[in-house]
Each structure stands twice: as C-alpha cells, then as structure tokens.
Amino acid sequence: MKRFAIFLAFSLLAGCATTPAVFTDYDPGVNFGQYQTYRWEKRPEGFSPLQTQRLVAAIDAKLRERGWTQSTNAQVTLAGSIVTERRVRVDTWNNGPMWGGWGWGGCCWGPGWGAWGGWNTSTTVRDYTYGTLVLDMFDAQTQRPLWRGIAMGTVPDSPIAQTNAMQSSVDRIFAQFPPTSAAAQMP
Length: 187
Fold this sequence. Notes:
- The protein has about 190 residues and is α/β, with parallel strands linked by helices.
- Helices cover about 20% and strands about 40% of the residues.
- It has helices spanning about 50-65, 160-175, 180-185, and strands spanning about 20-25, 35-40, 70, 75-95, 100-105, 115, 120-140, 145-155.
- Helix 1 (about 50-65) runs parallel beside helix 2.
- It is elongated.
C-alpha cells in the first residue's frame, strides 16, 4: 500500500522527523477576495482511504478558516493528486585505517617507510517512500488555473506519523493563502 506524507524536504532520511518542502504558485492577476465557495473536482488518491479522508478534512478546515465554504455551485474547483515512490539511499564512507597506517618499519617490504593495515569502509542502505502532494485550484466557470500548492518529502512508516506530517504539510501550504495579488490591491 502506498503511503503519503509531505514531507518533506527533498533529501530526507526515512524515519526521521522532517519538515516538508512546500511550494506555492498563483496567478498574480487574480483577486482571490472574489472567491468564497469551492468543490472537489478530484480528491487526492494514492494511499490509504483513511489518510485520504484525513487529508481532505485538513484541506477543508484550512479553507473554512479563510471563510470559504463547500458548495455544489462553487466558484472554485479543487483537484488533488498524490504520487509516491520507493527510493533507496546508499551512503558509504571511510572511517580511516582499521589498524596500522603509514610509518617507519613497513609491513612486508623490509625496513623503511611503508603502509600496513587496510581501510575500514562503512555502507548503509535505506529503503524509504517519498511522496508528493499537488493541490490545484481552478476558476469553476472559466477553468482558468488560479493557484497550486505542492508538498514533498519522506513518508513516515506509522499512520500517526503520516497524519502529523500531512497536517504539517497542509498548514505550510496554506500559510500564505489566499495570496495577495496585484488585482486585489487595485481600487
């Protein structure tokens, strides 16, 4: 089953508490003050139905906080999508000589300078899930794209950590919503 989190900075380690990488974009010519109703055109899918339900509820709550309401005759349509992928991170480093090193006396070549011992190399392999949430808003009448929010990062393994990462992502996506555009500042 695919899991989702937003996770979350672009180069996150699996299992670590991380902050999602969040990006937003919008049409600066749009006055977002004219919009107050929305409906879901496409709910985000790609992980468990319970997590989908929690994600939609978190987005709905953020829009309600900004005075928006759901309506069948909405001014804005929402489309969400989730993509997850399995990734592998391989880290290798040298810890220095296991024993010995360079010095007088050599090893097997007789007296003089020489090397003896070997290098201690460590490698770790981490398998983890990386997720991306994309949320788009369109004008319901004209289908003009208005706004996009993206959150990306490592998906935690536990459902509780997934929910927390998801809520953090939604909070960060909507931190500057609605955007202040040039159209809103015109008389």
